[in-house]
Structures are given as structure tokens and as C-alpha cells.
Amino acid sequence: MAYQALYRTWRPRRFQEIVGQEHVTHTLQNALLAGRIAHAYLFCGPRGTGKTTTAKVLARALNCLARQGAEPCNECAVCREINAGTSMDVVEIDAASHRGIDEIRELREKVRFSPALAGYRVYIIDEVHMLTSEAFNALLKTLEEPPAHVIFVLATTEPHKVPLTILSRCQRFDFHPIGLADMLTRLREVAGGAGFTVEEEALYLIARAADGGLRDALGILDQAAAYGNMVVTADHVHRIMGTVRDDLLDGAAQNLAAGRADGLLHLVATLVEEGKDLRLFVQGLTGYLRNLMLVKISPHEELVLAPGEKERLLARAGEFTREQLLHILHVLTRVEQDMKWASQPRILLEVALVEATRPESGNSLAALARRVEQLELRLEQLMAGRVNGSVEEKDVVEKDIQPPEERRKAGNTGDTSTKRPQASKNTAAGGWGKKRAATKEVQPDSSVKAPPGNGEVCANGDVTLDKIRQRWPQVLDLVRSKSLPVYNYLAHSWPQQVVEGCLTIAFGPDHDMFKDLLDTAANRRVVEEALAVLFPGTWRVNIVYGNAPPEERKPDEPNEHLDAATAIQLFGGEEIEEKN
């Protein structure tokens, strides 16, 4: 006997063997048991999901001479004839090649004849949407009121092309794409029954490539077994399908996380040299990143993955932010569609990969947020460098605030010690005052205790608004040492009210953006911890809009007019009498 393909050899012959369509098989079985048989059925759904197979099982169950409940016996003469395709009572018609009105007129003449051996004549019309409008019109009356012994089963992958007049006369069953878990179970069963030696990762690759169609999956398995001489490995599947290995996809994801466009371009060049289809690479990378996103967002979700893949995804997920993954997936899904019609798909892919490494380059809100995040990170790094003494400006500031005698003792050269400093307004406000503010350190009160725990009573009821305003610069400095972004937001506000451990901080109407940025649980916590260092007890922070900030002098800003004694104390000069 000639060799038969796997999808024909392992075609289900009973309802319970049909995979992934329980909603269809359960309904048909109940109808058979109750004797509620419709005169016309419409089976629609993607290719390879079991439409024609279910129609043949239904035909055998209707005509079986020794039916066991709702299942055909597959042993009687009628079942054997239907399985062999020689039964005169079960007629299969390919509407793609018999789509004209003449074929339908011939069909209308034949339905008058009684069954030869069985109880029903079953007409299975495959790809029924291919019939012409005239053919549908000719079929309409017969489909509506067929003879009692005739049952029509129409199968199609495009039900929207079937006229509504036909749809309304049929019981419609929608076949779903077969799930990954069900397909893996069926592939293991077929591989074991056929005597194949199969790697589990190879079965996962086949099931994922089949995209819900079991017939396609069995075809790939059959081809891979022929390639490997009854041995199916993941490498065999990649070779016959032209897909990209998982280690290359993982390397591409690593380069995307690190923003290395050069590594991605080198990978594209390698794939082109190997003759790989770049669209298949984009599809594989998109599927890999989708699983990465699912693992990152819901790490406890049970996903159907290849052995060891979830551990690799969990290790890689920490290198991405959620916004970064969403940006990359948007770019890749768009370029996959564009590559279908492009004359130079490689250039499109290279441009898209470079764009994917720069999530801040777009005009979306996520891109703007990414740019703000990068700016804040750079500011934090710059301030950290200054605090650690890595910026030379710190040394200059320390020298400038020393009295002249100490500068001479430190070995300063030049004639600055012989010149009396001018206690002018510009010198005080623009020079010494600002540099002193840049190097000031907060010295918390020695009497301040650590913030009480959750079970302790707040003891900050005696803290007034004036006390907080007096020490507000120290609050800002503490906040700046913890988080520079929070300091930048808080710098545009002022303390407005204190009521039993709750400080109300106000923003002007022009600073609503800074108000919204500060008004988050994490940012408020930074301010509350800074308050707890300077004032006893626990604190809560409330963010509101205020009419106008209080009119008062900034703590770090020196007086515009200094008297002689203060100027001498600040700048190290000496007082002399003017002689006439």
C-alpha cells in the first residue's frame, strides 16, 4: 500500500478523538442522541482545525448500522465504505472546482434519489464560499427544504463570503484554532504511535509554527521525520522551516535591552548570509518578546513554553522595563506588516531595529517620559559625583569660603591676601552666598528621635508652620540627598499648613506638572522621611494648589545690604579709620 501522510493516517474517526473542538462535538453528540438532526450545517473556521473531519464523523454516525451511543462503530459495512471514500450515500464536493450553476443544478437532480444502503444521503460541500452568486441562488431552495433523507454540511474558511440567505438556513458551528497544549498532546500521541524519536523542544516549535492548525503541525512533523530519518530535533525543525534558533532570538533581545544597534545590525547581516527569511525572524522575535512581556507582567502565570524557556525568560525580563517592551513590540509588529510589500525588506528591518533601541526617539507620551527619565538619571549621576568630590568645583568652593588668613596658611599663591574684598551686593549674592548654599550640610537636631513605628503615637502636634518654614531649606537638602527628581519637584512648592502631623504643601497654578509628579506614594514618602528626621513623630504629606507662595526671603539668599561687622566676619577684612 502507498504511504499516506500523517494527517490522513491519524485522522480522527470518532468524536472523542477530535482535538480542541469540544463545543462542536458535544453539541452534535447530544443532537444525535436526542434525534434532533438539522437538515443543514455550516462548519467554519481556520484551516486544519477539523471541519471536514467532523463532517465525515457526523456522516458515519448518522448512517452507522451499529452505533455506540453517539459514536460510529467504524466496523460495519457502511462505516468502512465511508472511511474508504467509496460510499454512494456520502458525497464530497469541492466548491473551488465545482462552483458553477451547472454543477448545482446537477446536485439538485441527484438529491431526489433515496440512499443506496444507509439511512441518509450526506452532501459535504468544502470551501462553499467559492460558489458563484448564481450557484448560491440555485442551491437556496434545495437547502431550505431538502428531502427528508438529505443532510447538507457546508465547510468554509471565510464565512463572511457566504450569503446571509444561506447562513440563515444552516446551523452554524465555529471551529476555533487549536490551543498549544492540545496540539502538543496530539503531536506526542502521533509521534509515539508512528515510532518517531522526538525532542520536546521540537514539538513545541512545530506547534507554535502551525498557528492553531493541526493539519499543518502534522505535515511539519512528517517532513521533519523524513529529514532526520525518524528522528526529530529542534535543529531539524529550524532547518526545514527556515526559522531562527532561540539562542539568536535571546541575543537579539539582549541587544535590544542594552540599546546596542550595532549588534542587531550584525545579526541581520548574518541571517541574510545564511539565507534566512527576515519576516520569519521578525515573527519569531515578536513571539519571544511577547512571552517575555507576559512573564514580566505575570511571572506566576502558567504558560505553555518549551523546557527551560521560562527560566531564560525570567532571567532576561529584568533587563527590560514595561514601557521599553511595549515600544519594541509596537515597532516590530508595524515593520512585519510593512515588510510584506517592501522591495527592500532588509532596510526596513534595520531601520526598525535601530528605532527599537531608542524608545525615547518617538513622539508618544511613553517616549517623552523616557526622555525625562534619562535626564533625571543624568542629573542624579552629576550630583552624586559632586557629593563624592569628583567635581573640581567643590574644592574651589571650599577655598573661596575660607578667610584670607587660612588661604595664606594653605599655601595659596597670588596677591588676593593683600587686597581688601569689596562687600558689594553682587559679590555677596552671586559669589559667596551661592557657593555656600551648594556645600551646606544639614545638621539634624540631636534631640530628634527616630520616627515612631506603626504602633506608636504621633508626637509632632507642637510643630508649627513657622518652625517648618524656618527649617524648610534643610528639608529640601535632605530630600535632595535621597532623590534629586523629588527635590526638583519640591523646589517649586512651599509649606502651607500643619495640622496634627499632616503637612500641606502647595503649588502655584503654573506648576501643575510638578504637583502631579510629586503627588505619588513613593515621592510623598521621601518628603515624609525627611520631615521625620528634622521633627519628632510620623508625618503625612498632602499636596494641594495654593493661591500664591508666602512673601518671605529665601533662607539661602543673603541680605541685600550688609553692615560693616557682618561683612568683616564673612570676608575676613579689617576695619580702619579714614583720616582726613
Question: Could you write a compact summary of the structure shown?
Answer:
The protein is an alpha/beta fold.
Strand content: 5-15%
CATH class of the largest domain: Alpha Beta
The main pleated sheet reads as: 5 strands, parallel
* Secondary structure category: alpha/beta
Mean pLDDT: 79
Question: How many H/I helices?
Answer: 27
Query: In CATH terms, what is the architecture of the largest domain?
Result: 3-Layer(aba) Sandwich
The figure for the number of domains is: 4
Shape: elongated
Helix content: 40-55%
Summarize the structure in words:
The protein is α/β, with parallel strands linked by helices. It has 4 domains: 6-174, Rossmann fold; 180-241, Helicase, Ruva Protein, domain 3 (Orthogonal Bundle), CATH 1.10.8.60; 246-361, Up-down Bundle (Zinc Finger, Delta Prime, domain 3), CATH 1.20.272; 465-545, DnaA, N-terminal domain (GMP Synthetase, Chain A, domain 3). The chain has 27 helices and 10 strands. The protein has helices at 6-9, 22-34, 51-63, 77-84, 101-110, 133-144, 164-167, 180-194, 200-210, 214-227, 234-241, 246-258, 261-273, 278-297, 309-317, 322-338, 345-356, 365-387, 393-400, 404-409, 425-439, 465-470, 472-482, 484-490, 512-518, 521-534, 564-571, and strands at 40-44, 90-94, 121-126, 150-156, 171-174, 197-198, 231-232, 493-499, 502-507, 540-545. It has a 5-stranded parallel sheet with strand order 2-3-4-1-5, with helices on one face. Strands 8-9-10 form a 3-stranded mixed sheet. The longest helix has 23 residues, at 365-387. The chain is elongated, with a radius of gyration of 40 Å. The N and C termini lie far apart (133 Å).
